[in-house]
Design a protein that fits this description.
Number of strands of chain A: 9
Distance between the termini of chain A: 61 Å
Shape of chain A: globular
CATH architecture of the largest domain in chain A: 3-Layer(aba) Sandwich
Low-confidence stretches of chain A: none
CATH class of the largest domain in chain A: Alpha Beta
Radius of gyration of chain A: 22 Å
CATH topology of the largest domain in chain A: Rossmann fold
Number of helices of chain A: 8
Structural class of chain A: alpha/beta
Strand order of the largest sheet of chain A: 5-6-4-3-7-8-9
Oligomer: homodimer
CATH superfamily of the largest domain in chain A: NAD(P)-binding Rossmann-like Domain
Order of helices and strands of chain A: HEHHEHEHEEEHEHEEH
Strand content of chain A: 15-25%
Helix content of chain A: 40-55%
DNA sequence: TAGATTGTTAATCGATTAACAATC
DNA sequence: TAGATTGTTAATCGATTAACAATC
């Protein structure tokens, strides 16, 4: 029944959206949902949803649809929610602090263990209960505590070096919030980047296109 | 020469990456680059780069390649860097504050005009030179100042309503940092979302896959 | 049972890659 | 000129959509 012959990145990127939408439905008390209803609510076709889920096995019941609770649970399982992953934050500046204080790491399957910084002012303190250690002690900490992912919110200039230190110490995932590309050729590590800049530029393109369309319409109106 | 017959989102998402890479090359003093060299540095094929640029016109010289400066400039133009767009921040909490203080809006073609919040403590203050007004005065402000994009860092519960107020007041772009889907059916507005959670879940999936592969290899070794 | 909806294969569509003439 | 590299069309590949038998 299970397929799983190399799941495409397009599918992987949709899994978290399914998970989010199913959580929302669960919250609303919805018990079952069909692929067509789920598709409509997410702007996807029923076919695509069934095809996506087909990558991992049969989660539904013919003639009935999908049970919201169990589908959510199973997608969570696929995503790795219950694997006991751990994470540390590198760079407790503005953004690092904001993420530590507001982002629900545990909702996404991660236990936040610690933060690291070089500022004398912040080292030794706690942010929302999370201890901030000096970056010099990173390797020491990683030796004692198995860490799955390092979250990079350090300055651009320190990103690559800090990443290399993490990878050298056995971290296999990097969540990169610095506005630069980092790479570790030959290393067995997954890099996932959040590029604010790319996102805003894409938005800039889209609203600019919209404006141009507007102009054309204006032109049409005048003739 | 110019094509531009509906540029696919795949291309649109690559444009900011080109722009970023070209800026980096410019910084390093590189004058010219071929599609194959640019491709290699970004993990794309030369074909893809030429095909992408072909959507917008001929920016290169045969037998020579592309001039870094002018290609960067032209991609910037396509993205809308020089259109005098403006932006306001809704929600001056931790994340909003971090973005106001650290994110270079002007590098992406936006002038940051103001922030809005409801906290008595922050209303009336400035963050990195940006005034914080009370959210009640949003409509008043938008009447006086043309705003292209509203950046949403409000709590999840306020996201949709705040978005609707922006759209009603004539804002055509929403940069959504809340962890929920917002939609404005029938409205002429572009929504670009940054979902931290989706990103971390995708990373979770990828490192979990890696671990499973590891296990299999371990198994193989033992037999 | 009849109706609904999935699981799964086949068809279509779109995006990426390859090829090569044009030309700097 | 010869060599290099683009612009652009054609071929391939992969992802989405359609179709429908299986079955709840």
């Amino acid at each position: 029944m299970k397929r799983n012959t190399r799941v495409s990145t397009a599918v992987i990127r949709r899994l978290p959206r399914y998970y989010r939408q199913l959580s929302e439905l669960q919250r609303k008390g919805v018990i079952r949902i069909s692929s067509s209803a789920l598709g409509k609510s997410m702007g996807l076709t029923a076919s695509q949803i069934r095809q996506d889920l087909f990558c991992f096995g049969g989660f539904g019941q013919q003639g009935y649809g999908y049970k919201v609770d169990s589908l959510k649970e199973q997608i969570g399982e696929i995503l790795g929610i219950n694997r006991g992953h751990t994470i540390v934050v590198l760079g407790a500046g503005n953004l690092g602090r904001a993420l530590i204080e507001n982002f629900k790491f545990s909702n996404n399957g991660f236990q936040l263990l610690a933060a690291f910084d070089v500022q004398e002012r912040t080292v030794g303190t706690q942010i929302a209960g999370v201890p901030v250690y000096h970056a010099d002690t990173l390797e020491e900490f990683l030796k004692e505590n198995p860490v799955s992912v390092g979250l990079l919110t350090v300055p651009k200039s320190a990103a690559q070096t800090m990443g290399e230190r993490l990878v050298a110490a056995g971290v296999h995932g990097i969540w990169n919030f610095t506005n630069c590309e980092i790479a570790f050729p030959g290393e067995d590590v997954v890099v996932e980047s959040v590029h604010f800049s790319d996102s805003l530029l894409a938005l800039n393109y889209m609203i600019s296109q919209r404006e141009d369309g507007q102009e054309q319409e204006d032109g049409k109106d005048k003739t």
